[in-house]
Design goal:
One of its GO terms (molecular function) is carbohydrate binding. The chain has 311 residues and is α/β, with parallel strands linked by helices. It contains ten helices and 13 strands. Helix 6 (193-206) packs across helix 7 (218-230). Bound molecules: alpha-L-arabinofuranose.
Length: 311
């Protein structure tokens, strides 16, 4: 699915507008919708011509969108890669045509670091560490003593946030809780509500005594809540829940007592991205990784924070 927004000359001076080709992952979560809106609004605000396509979580769709942007000769290509590997060939084609590539939200693994200019996005490994640290507080608050059986709902297999959140979480677990915490089940829910619900239902069948759910995003957590309730258990009490993102629906579930803590991952990357895109177009040097600032929230902060949430 591809759409173009705005015309090719600016209203004021008639000078040529910057043309940005953007390939989005899909529309799998509340986070993604907020990210898409932010990118579209910021491009409009900056006065760019935005060529936008939604890859519906398929790498082949992203590759053909990027190829089409290369053929069209856009000024800059930006994309949020669905998975980390398999990009070198298409990125080399962009480089050969001297079209700079900016990564946003997610990173890639590449043999040639010159194939992209910068990444504008979060530190997912740190989000995983923060999830483990906030779980310590959640367990303490709940008065949980003894071993902790953890279920993990992973994001899309092979995607940077899934790999890195799992890694950061495990790092803290291995360092500080090798004796008492254990991940007893871990499977992908593809970052969707339906995936979270279906996989959690299966987890509860195989491991009815789970103490904690760590879900790599709010949407999977919300789907899991439905499965937990359907199994006759109380989310947030019988099973303590930590998620990542901080979308409105996540905060609503947290203010209802069903999620215990949320590690924020900010999707409002549009304005920063547009700034970087202009600099890259102008040949300015930019930082290799432009990180996003984020916070963590416990359940008792949810009601007060809810009205201030922007996505
Ligand atoms: O890449 C960011 C992740 O992708 C978000 O945490 C998740 O909700 C989204 O689908």
């Amino acid at each position: 699915k591809e759409d173009d927004s705005s015309s090719s000359t600016s209203g004021s001076g008639g000078s040529k507008k910057l043309v940005l080709g953007f390939s989005q992952v899909g529309s799998e979560s509340g986070w993604r919708s907020a990210n898409t809106d932010s990118v579209k609004e910021a491009a409009k605000e900056a006065g760019y011509t935005l060529k936008f396509s939604d890859a519906q979580q398929k790498q082949e769709n992203q590759i053909s969108a990027i190829r089409s942007y290369i053929t069209q000769g856009v000024d800059v290509i930006a994309f949020s890669p669905v998975v980390v590997t398999g990009w070198d060939a298409v990125l080399k084609e962009a480089k050969a045509k001297k079209i700079p590539v900016v990564l946003t939200d997610r990173s890639v693994e590449t043999s040639d670091e010159s194939l992209f200019v910068t990444l504008v996005g979060s530190d997912f490994t740190d989000e995983g560490r923060r999830a483990a640290k906030i779980l310590e507080k959640v367990l303490e608050k709940a008065g949980h003593k003894g071993p902790v059986k953890i279920a993990q709902l992973e994001g899309t297999t092979g995607a940077a946030p899934a790999i890195e959140r799992a890694k950061g979480f495990k790092e803290v677990m291995d360092a500080d809780h090798a004796d008492d915490w254990k991940i007893v089940v871990s499977q992908t829910g593809d970052f969707t509500r339906a995936g979270g619900k279906q996989v959690m239902a299966a987890f509860l069948q195989s491991n009815p005594d789970i103490d904690v759910l760590f879900a790599h995003n709010d949407d999977m957590g919300i789907g899991a809540i439905q499965a937990i309730e359907a199994a006759g258990k109380k989310p947030g009490k019988d099973i303590l829940i930590v998620t990542v993102d901080g979308v409105k629906d996540g905060f609503i579930a947290m203010s209802e007592g069903k999620i215990n803590a949320i590690v924020e991952c900010n999707p409002l990357l549009g304005p920063q991205l547009m700034e970087v895109v202009q600099k890259v177009k102008d040949g300015e040097t930019v930082e290799r990784w432009i990180k996003t600032k984020e916070s963590d929230f416990m359940q008792d902060q949810a009601k007060a924070a809810l009205p201030t949430r922007k996505y």
